[in-house]
């Protein structure tokens, strides 16, 4: 199973509450923070909702 490295790149100020709550659900606390998640449909859906605020990289598993 591959992993996704997600970095929060743009502030959520001015965006609706659902998008801010999605960032929180992904585990973000601060701007420019990076979190790693397993690649699943649930995580991909959450990332899709805030794709304009985050940067995603696929991490090769060793």
Question: What does this protein look like?
Answer:
Helices cover 29% and strands 27% of the residues. Strands 2-1-3 form a 3-stranded antiparallel β-sheet, with no helix packed on it. The chain has one domain (3-59): Ribosomal Protein L30, Chain: A (2-Layer Sandwich), CATH 3.30.1390.20. The chain has helices at 17-25, 41-49; strands spanning 3-8, 34-38, 54-59. The chain has 2 helices and 3 strands, in the order βαβαβ. The protein has 62 residues and is an alpha+beta fold. The longest helix has 9 residues, at 17-25.
SSE pattern, N- to C-terminal: EHEHE
How large is the count of helical segments?
A: 2
Are there runs of 5+ residues with pLDDT below 50, and where?
none
Helix content: 25-40%
For the secondary structure, the number of strands is 3
Number of domains: 1
At CATH level 3, the topology is Ribosomal Protein L30, Chain: A
CATH level 1 name: Alpha Beta
CATH architecture: 2-Layer Sandwich
The strand line-up of the biggest sheet is 2-1-3
Major sheet description: 3 strands, antiparallel
- The geometry reads as globular
Radius of gyration: 11 Å
CATH superfamily: Ribosomal protein L30/L7
- What percentage of the residues does DSSP assign to strands (E)? 25-35%
Summary, kept brief:
29% of the residues lie in helices and 27% in strands. It is an alpha+beta fold.
């Amino acid at each position: 199973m591959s992993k996704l490295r997600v970095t929060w790149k743009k502030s959520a100020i001015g965006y609706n509450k659902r998008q801010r709550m999605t960032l929180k659900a992904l585990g973000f606390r601060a701007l420019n923070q990076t979190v790693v998640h397993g690649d699943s449909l649930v995580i991909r859906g959450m990332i899709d909702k805030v794709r304009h605020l985050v940067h995603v990289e696929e991490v090769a598993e060793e």
